[in-house]
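wait is this the right file?? whatever heres the structure
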């Protein structure tokens, strides 16, 4: 005797699986971008001229002018895919919070951290992209001038650690969900993720301090 799923249920399951794959792929792409972006911007710690040279290379090849808007679309696409599983109604949020407290499991809390941080990053990340792409060319001096004017330093002091927390949690959860964790114990993977997060938060904060002390 066989029990076949209804056609609509089978199609729905297949669609969900495809969307999960797209969410994973877009998430990995954004994680790689964030780590590369923070590493390249942190070149200002060595010498502002190095950062200027890197930015000039990207702009001379239209990677900033074309890649920036495409990155923003990928950013929105990833958020759309992830938002499928985020409860936006108050009742759903209360249920998720109650389950998290009842389970009291690290991975469940990580999902909540990711969901909450995603909302903030969506807004702040959009503002950051607009501020940078509407003020080309990118230079260390322009970045420092923006950082030293108004409330921008507080903006980045919140955004930088939040982005690192979000992508490192995402990297850990992707590794667990898609089977990479089989090669590592979860505790070992957790230590690697924490170490990576601390390293990039330190790099991000050091970069902000450098911009704040750079003569413009």
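ok assuming it is, sequence goes like this
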């Amino acid at each position: 005797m066989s029990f076949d799923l209804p056609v609509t249920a089978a199609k729905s399951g297949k669609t969900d699986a495809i969307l999960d794959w797209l969410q994973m792929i877009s998430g990995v792409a954004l994680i790689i971008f964030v780590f590369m972006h923070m590493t390249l911007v942190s070149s200002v710690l060595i010498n502002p001229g190095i950062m200027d040279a890197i930015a000039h290379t990207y702009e001379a090849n239209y990677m900033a002018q074309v890649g920036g808007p495409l990155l923003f679309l990928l950013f929105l696409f990833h958020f759309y895919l992830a938002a499928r599983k985020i409860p936006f109604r108050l009742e759903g949020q209360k249920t998720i919070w109650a389950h998290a407290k009842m389970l009291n499991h690290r991975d469940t809390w990580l999902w909540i951290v990711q969901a909450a941080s995603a909302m903030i990053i969506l807004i702040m990340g959009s503002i950051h992209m607009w501020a940078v792409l509407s003020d080309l060319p990118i230079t260390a001096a322009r970045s420092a001038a923006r950082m030293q004017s108004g409330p921008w330093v507080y903006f980045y002091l919140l955004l930088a650690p939040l982005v690192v927390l979000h992508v490192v949690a995402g990297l850990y959860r992707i590794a667990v969900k898609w089977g990479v964790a089989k090669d590592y114990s979860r505790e070992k993977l957790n230590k690697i993720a924490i170490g990576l997060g601390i390293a990039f938060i330190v790099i991000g904060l050091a970069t902000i301090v450098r911009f704040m002390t750079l003569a413009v």
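Residues 7-41 form the longest helix (35 residues). so i think its the right one actually
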